[in-house]
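Hypothesis: this fold can be encoded by more than one sequence.
Test: take the structure tokens below, design a sequence, compare later.
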């Protein structure tokens, strides 16, 4: 099989820099920014309580901030980051996909999903993606630019606001889980992604007070960045988009494999699990007659078993949500079952992901591509 792919892009194109936002700043920097506006330092705490406790970013709602400074405060530290382009829902309102436009016209997507015991948001880390995986709509669209720390964080605020407004039936409270599985390669935008994660984890009033165990960072296998994430010492969940157990196939369907091979990627994932004590998820998109053969299930089990017992890893099989007009399509049900049975016989923990959003262009990048 020969697959034509776009060239890999590791550096995002330079476009207009996003405006600075409260979400870009550390707690100390927020105090400094407040004082530069002529306000005493305690005002930074008040502003953060509006943002993180009350989910407010309209400065006109900041009733305890002097009225005379609100306009300048809004202009300097609360510019509008996301403008809703379209919103689609399915699964009786339990899945909501939103397309957002950024200040420079770039598009990004986020997907809010209600499950029986949790509410999860899938967020984007880049506008587009430079990893060029041929079965992915985002990858084939190319990389526009990295998102800023604030643009990443704003997706979470918007989701919490949607939940508070009752947009998703049956939900109460706030997000339980965040998964970096939207547009882009998170570890290719490492600094902004980690900055946003620290804001998610920071207790109020300086952040959303979430648990690290509720945050998943996905990667196609940027080994040095996985090693750097390991050194952070945070018990985040790492998800590795493997999609093939052999270098011959993975070189073609996940082009980053030409830089870091399967063995290197799996070794880095195993080390992450060893250090953090967090089980790694191996993401595997099931593609008809491409990577769904029983012999590849056998090889996948062999590759994972070489690193130790099964406690360190879990395989998450993903029925491909095909892009309209693409030759890449989902596996047959019989082939899915045979693949699962093979892994289970080898003792590999495996689940088949719940499919959502096919009727609302649910695959990553589809909605953005349709609106370009």
């Amino acid at each position: 099989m020969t697959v034509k792919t776009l060239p890999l892009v590791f550096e995002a194109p330079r476009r207009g820099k996003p405006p600075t936002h409260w979400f870009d700043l550390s707690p100390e920097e927020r105090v400094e920014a407040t004082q530069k506006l002529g306000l005493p330092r305690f005002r930074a705490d008040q502003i953060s309580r509006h943002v993180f406790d009350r989910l407010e970013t309209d400065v006109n709602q900041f009733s305890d901030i002097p009225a005379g400074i609100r306009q300048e405060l809004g202009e300097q530290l609360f510019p509008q980051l996301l403008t809703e382009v379209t919103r689609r829902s399915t699964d009786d309102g339990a899945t909501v996909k939103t397309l957002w436009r950024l200040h420079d016209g770039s598009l990004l997507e986020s997907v809010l999903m209600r499950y029986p015991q949790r509410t999860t948001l899938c967020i984007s880390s880049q506008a587009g993606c430079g990893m060029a995986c041929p079965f992915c709509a985002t990858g084939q669209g190319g990389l526009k630019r990295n998102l800023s720390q604030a643009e990443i964080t704003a997706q979470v605020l918007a989701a919490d606001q949607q939940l508070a407004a009752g947009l998703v039936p049956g939900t109460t409270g706030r997000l339980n889980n965040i998964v970096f599985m939207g547009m882009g390669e998170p570890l290719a935008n490492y600094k902004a992604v980690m900055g946003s994660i620290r804001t998610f984890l920071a207790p109020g009033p300086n952040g959303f007070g979430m648990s690290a165990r509720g945050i998943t960072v996905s990667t196609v296998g940027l080994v040095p960045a996985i090693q750097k994430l390991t050194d952070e010492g945070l018990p985040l969940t790492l998800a590795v988009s493997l999609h093939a157990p052999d270098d011959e196939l993975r070189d073609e369907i996940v082009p980053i494999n030409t830089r870091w091979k399967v063995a290197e990627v799996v070794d880095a994932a195993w080390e992450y699990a060893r250090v953090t004590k967090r089980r790694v998820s191996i993401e595997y998109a099931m593609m008809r007659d491409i990577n769904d053969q029983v012999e590849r299930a056998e090889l996948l089990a062999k590759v994972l078993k070489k690193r130790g017992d099964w406690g360190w890893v879990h395989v998450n099989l993903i029925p491909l949500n095909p892009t309209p007009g693409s030759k890449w399509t989902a596996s047959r049900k019989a082939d899915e079952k045979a693949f699962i049975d093979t892994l289970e016989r080898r003792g590999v923990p495996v689940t088949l992901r719940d499919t959502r959003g096919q009727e609302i262009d649910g695959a990553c990048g589809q909605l953005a591509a349709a609106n370009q």
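The longest strand covers residues 107-115. Residues 149-164 form the longest helix (16 residues).
Hypothesis status: open.
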